[in-house]
Amino acid sequence: MSLFKDEKYENLDWISQATEPMESSLAEILAQLPETLELNYESYIFYTRNSYNLNIEVRDIMHELLHTNEAYKKMKSSSGDSLTYDEHDTLINCFEIQVDEGTILDGINKTLTGGVRMVKVKHAIDDKLIESMLGSRGLNYMRSNVSRFRLDFKRATDIMEIMGDVDGGFYRTRSSANKFSAVYNRLKKLLKENEWKIKDTELANKVGYWVADYIADGNLAAYTNFCKLKVMTHKGVAIYSMEEQQ
Asked: What is the Cα–Cα distance from 163 to 190, expressed in whole angstroms?
């Protein structure tokens, strides 16, 4: 049925359908970052302006480069979220600072002789590493947007029963904090083990948004999307995309 059509999956070549690679905004961001970034005196000072000792690190440069990275801006415009600490560190670990022997930074004459550069040393992010961070931004959204005052017991039960593997204590507890913890930890386990075979990181993040918006605010479009995604798992193949209810 077109209602449950996964256009991304259907447009993959047969090799990709067989191997089911991860699709990640993180990989797109990495691909758009420069292979080598040579620094002069002005850029060196700019990137280390918040440093106490003028030692330059990849982290200093990465923070600035992300502001002009089109893939990063696209990710932020679609979800409103920034990278998690783990995602940010994953990008940082793909680069290193190289300094030529004898390089001198002269603050009096404002010159840099020799050479300092940031170099991309990893050109791809391992699928296993990407999968280990699956849905992390959505889980962060849940923690930030659902409080004990904004959790409906019935809606939390709806979500838990769709995810399955419900502990009997979940039904007995009358604590909002315990209800939320149960929903959160069940979703975290589902994503960590990728039980639903979600292969697109942005789609995986949306699962957390949907769960939070439904149990806190009763957003029916979010609940519909969550249910549709669950139905799509019955195909037994990787899931890359779905037609969302707005």
From this structure: 8
pTM of the predicted structure, to 2 decimals: 0.86
Q: pLDDT tens-digit profile of 49-90? A: 877 778 899 998 998 899 999 999 988 887 777 889 999 999
Structure token digits, residue 61? 């440069």
Neighbour order of strands in the sheet with 116-120: 36-39, 116-120, 95-99
* 148 touches 215 (CB < 8 A): no
CB proximity list for 164: less than 8 A, separation 6 or greater = none
CB 199 within 8 A of CB 23: yes
Opening angle at CA 96, ends 73 and 113, nearest 5: 105
Number of neighbouring beta carbons within 10 Å of residue 70 = 10
Q: Give backbone dihedrals phi and psi of 195, rounded to 5 degrees, phi first.
A: -60, -30
